Amino acid sequence: MAQLHAVQSTRESPDATDIGSLLDGLEDNIEKLETALDPLVSQALSETTNKMPVLDKAKLYIFVTYAIESILFSYLRLKGTNAKEHPVFTELARVRKYFEKVQKAENPPETAKPKLTVDKDAARRFVTAGVRKAPFESPSGAEFKRKFNQRAENAEKAERRERKKQRRTVEKRRQDLSGSDAGPSSTS
User: What is the pTM of this model?
Assistant: First the structure.
């Protein structure tokens, strides 16, 4: 027994006064934590987050969930249970993923921003193709007017020819009808 006592005394163990000061520090930290958490705990979480922006609301829910899961994890470890095989551990990992998503939303990576550059060769091809498809356009507009007027005149001429052709057809039918009404002509 004397040997056991000698082994224990050679280990570095805190004095009773050191433990007392550590407990006092723990009590002070717990009081500060209670004071900081009082606005959050004094009312329902939905009331607290009611007027918060969406991103802040998501962060608060994630922090609260993470705190609860961490406390459960610590409790299981203190009890001697293998907490890494408990469902709490997978839940902690899931909450961490949500926290990473919120961080990405808050600070998007620089590569995610679209580049606004002009491909000059492609622009040149578009413009050239557009110019080739619009043959009547000219810088002065005079050539366009001339060609437009020429097309309008051609359309009018074609319309006049068509009307003339229709009149001839109508006259020819009238003559055919008037000739057949007279009956056979008798020549004596």
Answer: 0.45
